[in-house]
Amino acid sequence: ETMINQIAAGEVIERPASVAKELVENALDAGASRVEVATGGGGLSLVRVVDDGAGIPAGELALAVSRHCTSKLSTDIHDIRSLGFRGEALPSIGSVSRLAIRSRTADADAAAEISVEGGDVSAIRPAAANRGTSVEVRDLFFATPARLKFMKGERAESSAITDVVKRIAIAFPAVRFTLSGTDRSTLDLPANEASPHGQLARIAQVMGSDFPDNAIAVDAGRDGVGLTGYISIPSYNRANALQQYAYVNGRPVRDKLIAGAIRGAYADVLPRDRHAVTVLFLALDPALVDVNVHPAKSDVRFRDPGLVRGLIVGALRQALAAAGI
Ligand code: ADP
Ligand code: MG
C-alpha cells in the first residue's frame, strides 16, 4: 500500500508546490474563508496549510489518508464542482513525508489528530484546535531520496509555491489568503466582496495595484463558451516572469492553447519577446472540456479547441481595437 501510494505520489506530488496546491484546494473544498500557508526550506522542510473550513470528523480522519477515499464523490465526472475528487493527494503525501492532520468540525467538542510517516499511519489522538483543519507536511520526499535530487534550489521551490497560491487566490476573491515562509516570499491577500468589483480587487492584490489602470476588460461569448477577464495594454511593461492566469469553470489551468491564442491576439501590437499580462476566465458546458487529463489536474482538453482558440483571439483583438490599440 505504501509502495502504491509512493508511485501515485510520483504523479501527483512533483515538488513542494504540488503539496501546497493540493492542501489549499482541500481547504477551499471545505468552504474555508481563510487559508494560511506557511513554508520552510522552499517547502521541502515544511508546508503547513491552516483553514477555517468544515473540518474532518474524528471518525473520518483515517479515511482521509487512505487511497481513493474522497468525501467529494459526484455521480457525474463532468459535473465536478470541487477542486479535488480523486482521494489521492493525502495518501500520496503521507507516503513520502511526515504528515500531520489536526481537525475539528463545528459540532465536535474537541479536535482530533492523525499522522502518517512515510506511509505508517498513527492512531487518532485527541487534540486542541479551533474549528477547521491544519495539515502539516514536513520533510517532503524523506522517504524517497531519489526524488529529492530533482528539486531545484529553495528559491525556485518557494517561488513555485507563491505562484500556486496566487493562481488559486485569483479564483477565490472572497477568501483571505496568507503565505509566510523562512524566505522573503510572503503574501497577505485580504478577503474581498464576492462580486465583479471584489474580483478586480483580488486581481489587483495579486498582479499589482497598477494593473487595473493598465488593463482592458474582456467580455465575450460564442456558441455557449463565455470569456471574461482583463488583459494588459501593450505599453504595460512587466520585466518579471510571465504573468498569465487562466481559469476554466473557476479552476486554474495551464494550457498551451490559451497561451498560444493570447500570443496570436497580440502578434501585431507586442514585440515577440514581450508577453501580455492576462487574467482570463473561460466558462463552458462541463461536457465540452476534460479537466481529468492528469492527476495534478492543471491540464485541460477542450472538445473543440478551434472554437476556444478562435473565441480568445477574436475577443482579445476586439478588446484591443475598442481601446484604440
Ligand atoms: P480529494 O480532495 O480528491 O477528495 P484528498 O486526498 O485531497 O482527496 O483528501 C481526502 C479527503 O480528506 C477529502 O475528500 C476530504 O474529505 C478530507 N479533507 C482533506 N483536507 C481537508 C480540509 N482541509 N478540510 C476538510 N476536509 C478535508
Ligand atoms: Mg484534494
Textual characterization of the structure:
The protein has helices spanning 2-12, 16-29, 61-64, 89-96, 145-148, 154-171, 196-207, 256-266, 305-322; strands at 34-40, 46-51, 98-104, 111-117, 120-121, 125-127, 132-138, 176-180, 187-189, 215-222, 225-232, 244-248, 251-253, 278-283, 289-290, 301-302. By secondary structure, it is α+β, with helices and mostly antiparallel strands. It has two domains: 2-189, Histidine kinase-like ATPase, C-terminal domain (Heat Shock Protein 90); 208-322, Ribosomal Protein S5, domain 2. Strands 1, 2, 3, 4, 5, 6, 7, 8 and 9 form a nine-stranded mixed β-sheet that branches. Strands 10-11-14-12-13 form a five-stranded mixed β-sheet, sandwiched between helices. Strand 4 and strand 5 (120-121) form a beta hairpin. The radius of gyration is 20 Å and the shape is elongated. The mean pLDDT is 91. The structure holds adenosine-5'-diphosphate and magnesium ion. Adenosine-5'-diphosphate (ADP) binds at residues 22, 26-27, 30, 51, 53-56, 64, 70-72, 84-90, 133.
Keywords:
alpha+beta, 325 residues, nine-stranded mixed β-sheet, 16 strands, 2 domains, Heat Shock Protein 90, Ribosomal Protein S5, domain 2, binds adenosine-5'-diphosphate, binds magnesium ion
